[in-house]
Sequence to fold (156 residues):
Amino acid sequence: MARVDYFNDPNAPRANSIVPSVTAVALNGAGEVLLIHKTDNDLWALPGGGVDVGESAPDAAVREAKEETGFDIEVTGLVGIYTNPAHVMAYDDGEVRQQFSICFHARIVGGELRTSSESKEVSFVAPSELNRLSIHPSMRLRIDHGLVNRTEPYIG
Fold:
């Protein structure tokens, strides 16, 4: 399903849903961050997605990382909670979802790189190379927060 992201756009459609979602900042031994090139909006992003009924947020992050990247991760901490009502995603089925995302720190514990129907590319990217990729500002904020040692999680 295709989507369009709106961020601080006064012409954005009004949200009609909110779905808890998760992302994970997982680094390899070289300090590169695991990213996917998404099929729905053609942007680079952290692996993640919606939390299913009966599933905890950390378990959703583990499941989504495996589905989208082929890697097994272990959640190790909280990067932050991202709930900007000025960030909405409009899907081609008419849903307009307000952002509500919990971002976790994670470590890779197994698996091997592969793509999925949601990820046309999977790559480890050095922090110095992030600017060459097309990344939504909200996702870039999560990545940046995940790459620094904050004393408190981001709440916003």
User: Anything to note?
Assistant: The CA atoms of residues 21 and 50 lie 4 Å apart. The domain at 3-149 is CATH 3.90.79.10 (Nucleoside Triphosphate Pyrophosphohydrolase).
